[in-house]
């Protein structure tokens, strides 16, 4: 057993298991230096290995194992980063998003980022860091002064966020505009209750961008609605813990079965509405009433499930995090589709008015990676990482 006492902390010694240390050796025999990928065949490590000695030098713990013999090292950073998990697996070091929202680092959700700053050589670094911090912490951000040109949303993802667009069954870029025979209820003038998109995918899109190209004054209604789903779920846990437990354990069916379209689709996916980790923190949310299929659950559980469902639905409608706004032409909303539920109020085009948004998606893990890389490059790496809703524990 290796024991480490961390300077400046009052906590106990962190203990490291010898096999854990052997599996995580970072020497060039165990990990390929450039790629940092493990090349050691860990299946060849005996069930019990023994430590011979360990010493600290150059920010590395140099370790000597015996039976079988090996000399390697593990960086202090890696030991520190994993200290909490190794010694106290039930405690997750990350704060939950509602905790983050209440902390002093919160950026006002009213903050609007000017598109010109994001494409300006000198203002760009600060603006892009602000955008990524808002998306990580608040779950959404609004960009103003965008050109009202079709296709700008895709160019924005590729050149400003420097990420690929996530292609789905709706293509790379989709037009949210009222049509007579919509392939999706979004492409009509009906009300859309708050939901996440593509809950029937194994990995629903991470970021969603909606760019307002046209929104005529004569169009009545059509305001966008955004609710922090994680916040609402925490509220459910607080007021009705037994309902929270049901919604995090009973699998429900999400489906998109539609043969009468250019690309016929038949997608079904079953899972609970709320995903939690071992410490019962929320790691993902799946809420899409418009795309629910039949519930397959034990008969004796059904009534309780529906009670829990309706309670959560009402909590979402009355949640204090709920925001309503009219997305003016040239404005774009970007939000984390895995955390923020989005919707729209019904609208009436007043005869000749038009409401036309263009949207696209970004994969959740690619977004998270790019946010961290960008913040790291500008020395603005967050001290606590929020859950982004990708189910990572
Ligand atoms: Zn090694």
UniProtKB/TrEMBL annotation:
<keyword id="KW-0124">Carnitine biosynthesis</keyword>
<dbReference type="Pfam" id="PF02668">
    <property type="entry name" value="TauD"/>
</dbReference>
<dbReference type="InterPro" id="IPR050411">
    <property type="entry name" value="AlphaKG_dependent_hydroxylases"/>
</dbReference>
<keyword id="KW-0560">Oxidoreductase</keyword>
<dbReference type="GO" id="GO:0016706">
    <property type="term" value="F:2-oxoglutarate-dependent dioxygenase activity"/>
</dbReference>
<comment type="similarity">
    <text>Belongs to the gamma-BBH/TMLD family.</text>
</comment>
<dbReference type="Pfam" id="PF06155">
    <property type="entry name" value="GBBH-like_N"/>
</dbReference>
<dbReference type="InterPro" id="IPR042098">
    <property type="entry name" value="TauD-like_sf"/>
</dbReference>
<feature type="domain" description="Gamma-butyrobetaine hydroxylase-like N-terminal">
    <location>
        <begin position="2"/>
        <end position="66"/>
    </location>
</feature>
<dbReference type="GO" id="GO:0005739">
    <property type="term" value="C:mitochondrion"/>
</dbReference>
<comment type="pathway">
    <text>Amine and polyamine biosynthesis; carnitine biosynthesis.</text>
</comment>
<dbReference type="GO" id="GO:0045329">
    <property type="term" value="P:carnitine biosynthetic process"/>
</dbReference>
<dbReference type="InterPro" id="IPR010376">
    <property type="entry name" value="GBBH-like_N"/>
</dbReference>
<dbReference type="GO" id="GO:0046872">
    <property type="term" value="F:metal ion binding"/>
</dbReference>
<keyword id="KW-0223">Dioxygenase</keyword>
<protein>
    <submittedName>
        <fullName>Gamma-butyrobetaine dioxygenase</fullName>
    </submittedName>
</protein>
<keyword id="KW-0479">Metal-binding</keyword>
<dbReference type="InterPro" id="IPR038492">
    <property type="entry name" value="GBBH-like_N_sf"/>
</dbReference>
<keyword id="KW-0408">Iron</keyword>
<feature type="domain" description="TauD/TfdA-like">
    <location>
        <begin position="113"/>
        <end position="361"/>
    </location>
</feature>
<dbReference type="InterPro" id="IPR003819">
    <property type="entry name" value="TauD/TfdA-like"/>
</dbReference>
